[in-house]
Amino acid sequence: QKEVEQDPGPLSVPEGAIVSLNCTYSNSAFQYFMWYRQYSRKGPELLMYTYSSGNKEDGRFTAQVDKSSKYISLFIRDSQPSDSATYLCAMKTGTNAGKSTFGDGTTLTVKP
Amino acid sequence: NAGVTQTPKFRVLKTGQSMTLLCAQDMNHEYMYWYRQDPGMGLRLIHYSVGEGTTAKGEVPDGYNVSRLKKQNFLLGLESAAPSQTSVYFCASSLAGWDTEAFFGQGTRLTVV
Q1: Contact at 8 Å (CB) between B62 and B46?
Q2: Which residue of A lies nearest to B93 if distances are taken between CA atoms?
Q3: What is the sign, positive or negative, of the torsion defined by CA atoms of B1, B9, B95, A66?
Q4: Is there a contact between B24 and A70 (Cβ–Cβ < 8 Å)?
Q5: Which residues pair with B15 in a beta bridge?
Q6: Is B105 helix (H, G, I), strand (E, B) or coil?
Q7: Is B97's CB within 8 Å of A94's CB?
C-alpha cells in the first residue's frame, strides 16, 4: 500500500466551479503537507504549504488538513481555465533530509 | 537568478548507452534531489544530497548514480541505459531544514530505445 493515495481523476469542471482535490496518507509521522501545481511539460511549483491540522487560505485556494483522519484537501474557488493543470499532494516528516512523498497527481481541466 | 536549471531538456538514448544529467541551482541550497515521473504516477525519489560531497539513495536508486562535487551542482548518471528508464527526470533543491520549500527544475525528457 502506498503511503500517500490521491484521488486519481481526471477531473473536468466548468469555469467558476468549486474544485475539491483530496489525498489520504498512512504515515502518522507526516507533519508538513504541500500542494504542488504542475502545468503540462513543466516542473511542479509549490502552491500551498501547511503544518498541522486546520485550514490555510491563499486567495482562491484553501488547503485543509485533518491529521486525525489522515486526510488533506485542496479547494479551488471560482475555478479558472488557467487552473487547468495536474495537482500533486506531497508530505514530509520533520526529519529525513526534507524528503517528500508525493501522491500520483490529479489532472484538472477547467472548461470556459 | 535562474533557480534550478536542468541540462539537457530532451535526450534519446540507445539501450546500453550512458549519459549524465546536470542540475544546477543558484540559490545556495544545501539539499538537492533527483526524481523521476512516469505517466499517471507521482514523483519518485531516485537519490538525494544533504550537502556538498554527500549523496544518499532514495526510493528507486537502481541503475543510477549521482555526485555532488560542488554545492550548486547535482549530477545524475545512467551507466547503461534501459528502456525502463524512459521517464521525465526532475531535479529539486531546498534550504536545509524540514520546513522549507523545494524548488523544481523544468525537467529532462529521456527516451531509451
Answers
A1: no
A2: A98
A3: positive
A4: no
A5: none
A6: coil
A7: no
B22-47: b (≥16 Cβ within 10 Å) or e? ebbbeeebbbbbbbbbeeeebbbbbb
* Main-chain phi, psi angles of B4, to 5 degrees: -115, 125
Nearest-by-CA chain A residue for B6 = A43
Residue B106 corresponds to which cell in the numbers above?
A: 523544468
Question: Among all residues of chain A, which has the CA nearest to that of B4?
Answer: A43
- Quick check: B98 and A95 CB within 8 A? yes
Kindly report, residue by residue over B43-99, the tens digit of the pLDDT: 999 999 999 999 999 999 999 999 999 999 999 999 999 999 999 999 999 987 666
- Exposure string for B91-111, b = 16+ CB within 10 A, e = fewer: bbbbeeebebebbbbebbebe
Nearest-angstrom CA–CA distance, B68 and B94: 15
Q: Give residues with Cβ within 8 angstroms of B39, minimum separation 6.
A: none
A43 closest CB neighbour out of B45, B48, B104: B104
Contact A93 B99 (CB under 8 A): no
